[in-house]
Amino acid sequence: MIRPIVLGAGPAGSVAALLLAEGGAEPILIDREPDIGDAICGGFLSWRTAKALRELGCDPAALGARRVTRLRLYAGEREAEAALPEAGYGLSRKALDSTLRHLAVERGAQLEIDRARSVASGRIEGERRTWESAAIFLAIGKHDIRGEARPRDGADLALGLRVRIPASDKLNRMIGAAIELHLFRGGYAGVVLQEDGSANICLAVRKSVLADAGGDPWELLKAIARKNAGFARRMAYAEAELPVDTIGAVPYGWIAHEADSGVYRLGDQAAVIPSLAGEGMAIALASGRAAAQSYLEGEGPSIYQRRFAQRAARPVRVAETLWHLAETSRGAAVMTVAARLIPGLAGMAMRMSRI
Ligand SMILES: Cc1cc2nc3c(=O)[nH]c(=O)nc-3n(C[C@H](O)[C@H](O)[C@H](O)COP(=O)(O)OP(=O)(O)OC[C@H]3O[C@@H](n4cnc5c(N)ncnc54)[C@H](O)[C@@H]3O)c2cc1C
């Protein structure tokens, strides 16, 4: 019997492994990290992500996730607020990833720790050993690997930055049950409370914007705060020495249309939706489920990949349009004014960017 190998135990890989195990396929789930960290992420679970998680037996509310019912937009001095179509959640990636990995193992996946160096035709070259299987599920997220790297167009790619401001009553009241998007030229900052009451402040910015701040993330945060009063009020609770986590070159908009080398690509390896939409994790879960089902039904990776690319195309396109609009001063102003004047427009944009 072929034992499928799932490489990467983030949300996409863990869900695929969990469902493969439930289907009796005895998967091996490999991750380079024995200890689950707190991945750089906005930490916002859309209502669709929350529903998908509940279907897997993982209830965000039971993990202490903060209920999020409002979207708040800021652009310079402008501000707008809209109800989310349904309640979402704020949850740290450490809590989510630990739970999903644990569920996968509990349902029968065999967890192995190894760092893969390359993937090619049924083989994964790891630091510990070589892994072989006719069914490989590639779920290594933002990271690229030799043999399966995603093309980069060399343009001004986006970077991710994250600071966590420790819990405080005043900051809690300020943010409340909202996911906030602070829009500025060349990027945005998403702000949401997490299960421990801390505020997760996660930015996606063009590389050139960080370069303009001398390459120093704290200088960049200060520069954004100088021009955006709402952002400055939140950052006033951050101590100067809080660590800033960074991740480089996120290929927003990329979609795998073919399974060229016979590998099932999942999560960010299948489609990278601009993070402003807060739908990356829903894509991770949906692709993990679709790929596992496809395999269990005896379909090859090509059918799965083409079908998933079609499913992901609309939300990725809508999210790209919103992201490009939001990162210009005029576009951000238009978005904020439109959200205030036309009730329902923000809800429509949110619905259209869901998988
Ligand atoms: C700035 C930013 C903000 C975001 N905010 C949100 C948000 O608020 N809401 C939302 O839904 N989405 C958000 N996203 C998107 C979301 O983070 C991703 O879509 C999601 O993490 C993809 O899950 P994944 O399982 O594909 O990959 P990952 O979560 O990246 O997991 C990959 C796994 O593979 C392992 N791995 C990597 N390389 C190797 C290797 N060589 N060998 C072995 N193991 C390996 C890693 O250790 C990790 O466990 C955001 C993204 C960014 C960049």
From TrEMBL:
Molecular function as annotated in GO: FAD binding
SUPFAM superfamilies tied to this protein: FAD/NAD(P)-binding domain
Pfam families: FAD_binding_3
Residue ranges occupied by any FAD-binding domain in the UniProt entry: 5-112
Gene3D superfamilies given in the database record: FAD/NAD(P)-binding domain
Coiled-coil regions listed: none
Entry-linked InterPro entries: FAD-bd, FAD/NAD-bd_sf, Geranylgeranyl_reductase
Protein name (database record): FAD-binding domain-containing protein
Originating species: Qipengyuania vulgaris
Higher taxonomy: Bacteria, Pseudomonadati, Pseudomonadota, Alphaproteobacteria, Sphingomonadales
